[in-house]
Amino acid sequence: MIYAMSGGSESSDCLRAQPCSLTRAVSLARGAANNPIIRMLPGVYVSGLLVNTPTTAPLSIVATGAAITSFTGIRVDGGANVSIRGIAATGSNFAVQCGSPATSASTLQIQRSTLLAGTSSANLVATANCKLSLTDVDVQLNDSTGSSLSLGTDTTFVGDRLRVRGQQQPGIQTLGQRVSMRLTNSILENPLILFSTTDSGAPGSQVYFGFNTVVLRDFSLNCNNNSGSAHRTVLLENNIMVAQGQTSAISGTTCTLVNNVLLPQPSAPATNIVADPQFVDAAAKNFRLRSTSPALGAATGTPAIFTDHDFMGTGRPQGGASDIGAFEQ
Q: Residue 94's domain spans which residues?
């Protein structure tokens, strides 16, 4: 185990009794033969986490109780492979940046963490040439007008048990080419979702949303024309999608809709349910389902987007069939 602390030494051996700086801890861990775990001790780190050279094995960081507040909270690039758990990362520019087009592909896994915008124009996550996994992560844009998730060329993204929220319109966008996005068991509050990939050939980019609860208030989810590209697949399956004050939850025709609960939706494709999902208390952001909800036990028996748990980690199904949306009753 290698120990780092805020204000730690740049020359110590990073022992429990003599923690070092985060920069030194990363350097020692990368050079060690036994792949030690970095323990970020509780405290506020004012310098971001930077790993920008190849790692032969995943660099594991346990950061429970630690917070980073920096221009860029976490930056992984240059073929690095990093796994981090328990961090609270606030960025005034980006909370997380992973990969870049001109370098080797990078890998980043973040679990049980919080990502926050530090300014009114900050962005939370930006990727290119990156394999990014977010699990049980609270994605808080706060009052920023930036993006929550911006997934660029050659990104493979897997998100599970996320809560994406903000006071404005937390943007989720796919850009460039060869983007793969899979999002499950997540709660999205008023997201502005844009599918804007530009692949020039098959198979193109793929977006899979399954077992999520999406609550919109300012607009519909835009399944717009494949601007710039006909090579994009978007599958929305077993989600709850509510657009408060709008004429439809989904606009456009380029998404494949399978077995979702939609409100409102003037002309929903077959297999979808147009009905009030009956949240426990939407005003209080309690998006669990009442016992009379049409989403209960209504998921497809063999979904294309499979998951064996819900937003809280509860196993699916609890009855004969899973519930639609992020929560299993």
A: 33-168
